[in-house]
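Summary of Year 1 activities. Much of the first year was spent building the evaluation harness for sequence design. The harness presents a backbone, in tokenized form, and records the residue chosen at every position. We chose the following record to illustrate the format because it has been used consistently in internal testing since the harness was completed.
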């Protein structure tokens, strides 16, 4: 069955920048994946190579070009025409060599906006603010106040990692506002927000 999906590998957090799917054998018998295929609404992959998947074991399936990078994380096989996984939502299926649908799963981005994604948002934000500090000529020890335009997804990430963020950027406060008309526009993993970075004492 389709056990895990990496549809949006950005930001990179301890994993290569590749899309992949993990298959797990939940049966009590070994399964030869020769000729099996993955697919979505846009089409299906080429056939999988000869691999015996033992009970309660898994294999990573990805594009052929990604096999070397992903092999560090477990048994990995590549297929031609690996499905291009939509970031926001998609429906995937696993098909036997005989054309029978073995498993199908629909996902949305709420599935994988997990702790790793939140941590990635926080780290990317820290990098952006550090760049603004440097460009603004702040001293290394200057304390700052940061105001960010409202963004529901990023706000959840920043609130969870607020202590880490403030410690890294020397911020006494990190505040979300409905609108910021001036300041700097920054991109955090495909989301654009405006930020005001204010040196304490100004």
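For this record, the design step produced the sequence shown next.
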């Amino acid at each position: 069955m389709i056990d895990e999906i990496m549809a949006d590998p950005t930001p990179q957090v301890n994993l290569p920048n590749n899309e992949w799917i993990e298959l797990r054998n939940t049966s009590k018998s070994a399964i030869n994946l020769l000729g099996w295929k993955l697919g979505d609404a846009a089409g299906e992959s080429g056939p999988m190579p000869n691999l015996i998947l033992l009970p309660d074991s898994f294999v990573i399936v990805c594009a052929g070009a990604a096999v070397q990078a992903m092999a560090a994380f477990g048994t990995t096989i590549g297929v031609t025409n690996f499905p291009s996984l939509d970031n926001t939502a998609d429906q995937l299926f696993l098909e036997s060599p005989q054309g029978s649908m073995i498993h199908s799963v629909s996902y949305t981005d709420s599935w994988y906006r997990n702790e790793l994604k939140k941590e990635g948002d926080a780290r990317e934000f820290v990098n952006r603010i550090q760049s603004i500090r440097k460009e603004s000529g702040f001293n290394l020890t200057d304390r700052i106040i940061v105001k960010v335009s409202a963004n529901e997804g990023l706000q959840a990430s920043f609130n969870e990692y607020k202590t880490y963020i403030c410690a890294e950027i020397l911020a006494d406060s990190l505040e979300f506002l409905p609108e910021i008309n001036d300041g700097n526009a920054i991109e955090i993993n495909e989301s654009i927000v405006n930020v005001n970075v204010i040196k304490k004492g100004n």
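The chain has a mean pLDDT of 86. Quantitative recovery figures across the full test set are reported in Table 2.
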